[in-house]
Amino acid sequence: MFVTSVVLGFGGYSQMAAFVPDLNFTICKQFIATTGLGVGLIGASVVAAEFIGFPVPLMMQFGAIPTGIFAVLMLWLVTGSGVFASGSPTMVQMKRFRRYFLALITLTGFYPVFKVFYDIVPVAYRGGVILVLPIWRFAAKHFIVHATRDLEDIIPESVAFLVDFFSSLFVSVCMSSSGPFYLSFLFISTDLVQILLELRELGANANVLLQIIRQQPGGSTHQQSYTPETTKLLTTILEAIKKPSAFQARSLESVRLWACLPHSLTSKEAEQLINLEASGVYCLQNQSSNDRIKRTPLQTIHRDQKGFKQSASIVPTPNLEHETSPPDAQKKHSAHTNGSRLRAAKSNELVLQGLQLLFHCEYLELVEYVECIIPIVYVVYKSALEMLPNIVYYPGGAGNWGIAQAVNILVLAMLEVVSLVFLHHFLQCKFGFSAMHQLAFVLETHAYLVQVKLLIGILVLIPFELQHLGADFNARVSVVGQPKILFVAKPFESKTEVVSFFLST
């Protein structure tokens, strides 16, 4: 348990360092804070086992309380009290991270409850629970989107690695348990229907975008952007963003240039973003709450390579259009103005629809990635656990895992692999970009955020039914040997063995 606590604590602190770049939370400080957090959590667990009994009921959920206390205490000791001052510049970023992390903890704690609810429902009525799962996913996705409302860049990976991760793990666990074949078929059918609905929505978005691209003016810039066979979506969008005047785009109020979390940029890339921001096409008011800074009309804000903000003067061009002209000239000018406005609106819609399609593709790719690897990880975990002696501490003990259960789950994983390959082929043929490359880009640039969520889910949720963690709800409360032993599955004979368990696991 100590090793698990250290790994999870380091993952949480690394996420904090990414969300709060002004905190100056170095690797060394993270390691010190993580070690103190692990020691404090082990001490609290031993005390709870002494007064409540071992195993402590719902110890993973109970551990969230001392974890929160010791995490804040160690952060205060390592970084100083200035971080928590009301006027601290990091407070806005800390509040944003706290809201995000609380959403993660909430969904992590909700998963065991849903699994217990599924177990207590009679087998004849479990099909209804499976049909409720999409409704739960819909509500959970809206909850995560609300919690990350000012973190647009990480909404796809947050939803995929929180909601869809838990859903995929729940389906894998339920399919591995002994039950009628029609339940496994219902799980696979429900997942297939959801995939088809997502692809249908993506196809509708793609058709709208293709229509907009082919309605663009016939200039050379636009003709080079696509061919009748394959539309180069990324090339077209990059041209429209880098050279808004070529596409007659005047105001992209919904497009934000700067990422909500800082990225490593070269001086050339930072200068290019500064020039785009200076063009006045992109709305400066659509930034996250931590970036909203009062500006004078001659100032704007930019970030250097490390994400720090600096000011640069920008002088707006005066608008000189009020001149007298004959009626015919006014009509021609009005028609020309209306045509320009129409082309500008089409160009704006092109960029917005293209970015929405890329956003949607990123989410679908992450969902398919999660739903591919989670069943495989679960099969490997259960197969290895079946050969270990501590299998007796899990519900059902040994002998409940075999080839049939593994095949059922692997069929589900293969279905997700096929859907990911189909998505890649669809985007490659329609728009000339690779879904695999986009997925790899997200996994690389958001490595800390993605892998930490994956690690938390694997270390916390997969083994949560271990009886020593107090999650065996079917076990009868009994008194054996020690008066404070609550469950009877081979209890420890001394306090020394209890402490050894906490330290070794």
From TrEMBL:
UniProt keyword annotations, A-Z: Membrane, Transmembrane, Transmembrane helix
Transmembrane feature ranges: 31-52, 64-85, 97-114, 401-427
Segments of skewed composition (Basic and acidic residues): 320-331
Domain of life (superkingdom): Eukaryota
Region (Disordered): 305-339
Protein name: Uncharacterized protein
Species of the source: Phytophthora cactorum
